[in-house]
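Input record (Table S2, row 337):
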Amino acid sequence: MKQLIFIQSCFILFIACQAIDPTVICHGGAGSVDPSRYVGKFKGTVLAVQLGYQKLKESGNALDAVEIAIKSMEVDENFNAGYGAVLTSDGEVEMDACIMDGSNMKVGAITGMQDIFHPITLARRVMEKTKYNFLGPKGAMDLAKKEGFEFLPKGTLATQRAKDSLERWRQAQNVSLGEMVGEGGTVGCVAIDANGNVVAGTSTGGLTGKMPGRIGDTPIVGAGTYADNYMGGLSATGTGEVIMKSVLIYDILKRVNLTEITIQKAAQDACDEMLERYEDDGGVIGVDRYGNTAIAFSSEQMSWAYQNKDNEIHYGINKGDDFLYNIAECKNKNCFV
Ligand code: ASP
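Output record (aspartic acid complex):
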């Protein structure tokens, strides 16, 4: 009898130790962000995690949580995704997006999308409605039409800020074919539910001045976006060319799984090593399979926010930041000034 009680207690303790706090964590892009833009980034990332967390608590569905969080940043011109996406050297918007469900290892990715507000939703449709992982512009466009997506008049997604950035890029010295500028603004979110189901998603316009047809890391599974219930999930941002070569996210998750280090340390080490080796920076946000969070970047800034408790959201943009947004207290006042 005593033995049985002992075994039962061990089991309860084991379950208690494994309890996962439902969590939503998002980034709003790595890069050099002018302080005048901090408040916009704070508001956008905090709103995104708040919407995602609410959804996660209501429905328990990490996929819906990631989609709703990213959608809110895709309509916010403070970010380089959907409305506000940066422009190619030809002055066009070409967006990449990816979403991955770690509970079944399904993934949907698209590239070169134009004139739709929500590339992340289209990526989800690829995952749920086709047998494929990744569709190029024609296939993605056809799927969007079939699925009844709204097509906006040409140029609608190109904001004045994106046009000004392209103008600066055009006037800059030493801009040769292939040079691009990142200003921070790609968006990505990861959610984990109480049962350990992990979903990761990323959406971007890429880098200002990119050659038409250039594809970044965002839709590349394991580089820009990845989720696996057995390991965790992350979303990356920064210079896509080096993130791809580093297979950044998969590398981080393997470090965590094969050694004893935390996901935070693995993520920061991988970003630092990428900077050292390729002289180009980036960042990631995400969780390990127990819901421990990681926020790491080798760029000057990366805006981020996460929520894993009902009334509190953590957020920041510079190294060492960890501001607290109290939802009840901030309801009727601006907490970001
Ligand atoms: N990683 C994105 C790309 O290279 C850009 C970014 O995150 O700022 O397309």
